[in-house]
Write a structure and sequence with these properties.
- This protein is α/β, with parallel strands linked by helices.
- It is 38% helix and 16% strand.
- Helix 1 runs parallel beside helix 9 and helix 7 packs parallel to helix 9.
- The protein has one domain: Aldolase class I (TIM Barrel), CATH 3.20.20.
- The longest helix is centred in the C-terminal third of the chain and has 17 residues.
Length: 225
């Protein structure tokens, strides 16, 4: 089992990383460097690419180089890619590989193996299957027709049900939402647009990191520490 940094700030990459850019100064991978400098501790590669995209393997290797010694690097879903680029771990979709199978494939007890969970039963299955952590969401869904705090309620329920770290994702765009997730019991947050669409990715990451650390130090949901 791997130890997950807590509280953790994860950057989930967006599709711009896979597209070729003629202007080297506009290299979108530079925003990953800025995000790490701002306090991102885990970089999560979305393993999706179209025929017109830059080779996914090349992107993965660049990210491996950028994160080496500075941040953890995790690949979503693609075990073969995670192994080839020597990623620090993999994040599995619900009802895909069992975490124990993924760890055996990656041949490393210290590899981080996480799993997406969109329900309490899903989080429980992930924990029983050997996951090191669960990524739960969406924490905030502006298009949801139900209660506006449904995502935070799910975080609380999952945190009460499992004994592994819970990372919130989905719709987290401002520092205030980071604090709300931590107060609901999350051990970290994962973001995309909050950093990748920001005019200054490093400053945006730093603001999220500051909110994360402040909320982590404060009492949560009536607890004294």
């Amino acid at each position: 089992m791997a130890d997950i940094p807590r509280p953790s700030l994860t950057l989930i990459t967006d599709r711009r990383l896979y597209r070729p850019h003629a202007d080297k100064k506009a290299d979108p991978l530079s925003l990953v460097e800025a995000a790490i400098a701002g306090g991102v501790g885990i970089v999560q590669l979305r393993a999706r690419a179209s025929q017109d995209d830059l080779g996914l393997y090349a992107v993965a290797m660049r990210l491996r180089e950028l994160t080496a010694g500075r941040a953890h690097f995790v690949v979503t879903g693609d075990l073969e890619l995670a192994e080839k680029c020597r990623a620090d771990g993999v994040l599995l979709a619900e009802r895909s590989y069992k975490p124990s199978e993924a760890r055996a494939f990656l041949r490393g007890e210290t590899k981080m193996v996480g799993a997406f969970a969109h329900s309490v039963p899903g989080a429980g299955r992930a924990e029983r299957g050997g996951a090191d952590y669960v990524q739960v969401g969406p924490a905030f869904d502006p298009e949801a027709s139900g209660a506006p705090d449904a995502g935070l309620s799910l975080l609380r329920k999952v945190k009460d049900a499992v004994h592994i770290p819970v990372i919130a994702f989905g719709g987290i765009r401002v520092p205030e939402q980071v604090g709300a997730c931590i107060r609901a019991g999350a051990d970290g947050v994962a973001v995309t647009d909050a950093v990748t669409r920001a005019p200054d990715p490093q400053a945006a990451a730093a603001a999220l990191r500051a909110a994360l650390d402040a909320a982590w130090r404060a009492p949560r949901d009536g607890q004294s520490g």
